[in-house]
Design brief:
Shape: elongated
Oligomer: single chain
Largest sheet: 5 strands, parallel
Strand order of the largest sheet: 2-1-3-4-5
CATH topology of the largest domain: Rossmann fold
Number of strands: 14
Distance between the termini: 67 Å
Strand content: 5-15%
CATH class of the largest domain: Alpha Beta
Number of domains: 3
């Protein structure tokens, strides 16, 4: 059930008190008003979802109250009550903007039924707003990873997703932390509820609290209407707090309170309301180090890191690279309207597998989009790659960078690939099966390449390399 803030408006104290007590027992947040004028003053803050209002009151009628609320642009639903069973009165109330109509004496069960219907309607409206405003929130085609590192990650996701545990996703920029957060949501019981992504680093510091927790009308300059905030938009669903390390210390305190109390207080509101929201946070920063430096609260860090998942960099999941490139090519062809299916030259595939990808999947998307734009006759060649990749430069491993020797690109790629394979075998203490797994190729493919490079005299002098290659 969506958490609703309800106001009971009636000039008869007994009716207000009995109905309020019943709604409180049912789990609603409830306040009261004895007349229309006091009710309007309270409703003007904009944080009341539903008003259960008597039509006949001494100062202003319930119908007049509805008209004033609607004229003020407030988003409060009205359920009207009257002791006079008049069809004309009912029609007038609906025309004024009321959502529903009940005859006194009202039955408690009937009131709860009407509230559930209104709550469902408000939930659908809120989700539609989110879907319209968060285009990046739509579900996209998913890529199936095959590397051992990602299979381990899938196992962790399968364990934590069905729970309500808070999850902290760590990893370098561009490793797909947002994709992981979405998969947690889609594999959880909350999959049919909203998934709200929030980039904490992109929110203006003076508006973070309002964006996350909402505000009442008039809470600050420019707050001309009430706003729920992203946490309440995510009610019953998941909120994804990306770049959580960029959250200011003051907001860290407030977020900790939300996690512990499971309640939200909008800026300018006197009343907290319950929020059933799962939190998935992500960062590319070392939060433990930030805690040691006093830049991140230790208690919040412990709350967020109940279950940690590390997104491995692309260079540690090379078996995925070629399939991922083809997946991005197929998706990019549709998105960029690039025409028919695009193929990749074998030399390009070798370069892309060998490249270190310091920007990870995000960098790969940019490289693929560039290649799609430049490709002629539906074929990606080395000329379509960025110069630093086409030359085989590998960030962080200068000892394996190809030299500008004047050789053809094919010869340079072979020399570079042979050095890469030799290093992998040395790192595996001569175990070719381990080296093949690390390189993301089959064992038979590794032996074929060793034979090719030995015939071209490209293999470094190594007893391990040459002796086993010849015997093979």
């Amino acid at each position: 059930m969506k958490s609703l803030d309800v106001m009971v408006i009636d000039d008869e104290p007994a009716i207000r008190q009995i109905l309020t007590a019943h709604l409180l027992r049912a789990g609603y947040n409830v306040c009261q008003a004895p007349n229309g004028l006091e009710a309007f003053q309270r409703l003007s803050k904009g944080d009341i979802d539903v008003a259960i209002c008597d039509i006949k009151m001494p100062d202003i009628s319930g119908i007049e109250l509805v008209r004033r609320v609607r004229a003020s642009g407030l988003d409060t639903n009205f359920i009207m009550m009257t002791a006079f069973a008049s069809v004309d009165t009912a029609i007038e109330a609906i025309q004024a903007g009321a959502s529903d109509y009940m005859i006194k004496p009202v039955r408690n069960e009937e009131v709860l039924h009407r509230l559930v219907k209104i709550g469902d309607m408000r939930g659908l409206r809120a989700e539609n707003r989110v879907l319209r405003s968060l285009v990046q929130g739509k579900k996209e085609d998913q890529f199936t990873f095959i590397s051992p590192a990602m299979r381990d990650l899938d196992r962790l996701l399968a364990k934590v997703s069905p729970t309500d545990s808070t999850v902290l996703v760590t990893g370098e920029s561009g490793t797909g932390k947002g994709v992981i957060a979405r998969r947690i949501h889609q594999q959880s019981p909350r999959a049919n509820a909203p998934f709200i992504p929030v980039n904490c680093g992109a929110l203006p510091e003076n508006l973070i609290e309002s964006e996350l927790f909402g505000h009442t009308k008039g809470a600050f300059t420019g707050a001309d209407k009430a706003r729920k905030g992203l946490f309440l938009e995510a009610d019953n669903g998941t909120i994804f707090l990306d770049e959580i390390g960029d959250l200011p210390l003051l907001m860290q305190v407030k977020l900790l309170h939300v996690i512990e109390e499971k309640s939200i207080r909008a800026v300018g509101s006197e009343q907290a309301r319950r929020a059933d929201v799962r939190i998935v946070a992500a960062t590319n920063r070392d939060l433990a180090q930030m805690v040691a430096e006093g830049k991140f609260r230790e208690d919040l860090y412990f709350r967020l890191s109940v279950f940690q998942i590390h997104a491995p960099p692309l260079r540690d999941r090379r078996p995925d690279i070629l399939s991922l490139v083809r997946f991005l090519l197929q998706r990019g062809t549709k998105r960029l309207n690039a025409g028919s299916e695009v193929s990749i030259d074998p030399e390009v595939e070798e370069i892309l597998v060998a490249y270190q990808w310091p920007g990870n999947v995000r960098e790969m998307e940019n490289v693929v989009d560039r290649a799609l734009i430049l490709a002629d006759e539906g074929r990606v060649t080395c000329a379509d790659l960025p110069p630093h990749i086409a030359k085989g430069m590998r960030a962080g491993m200068p000892e394996l960078a190809m030299q500008d020797s004047g050789d053809s690109l094919r010869d340079q790629v072979r020399r570079f690939e042979s050095a890469l394979i030799a290093k992998a075998i040395d790192d595996a203490d001569g175990d070719r099966r381990v080296a093949a797994q690390k390189l993301g190729i089959g064992l038979s493919s590794l032996y074929r390449k060793l034979e090719e490079f030995e015939s071209l005299e490209l293999l470094p002098d190594s007893t391990n390399l040459r002796s086993e290659t010849r015997s093979a």
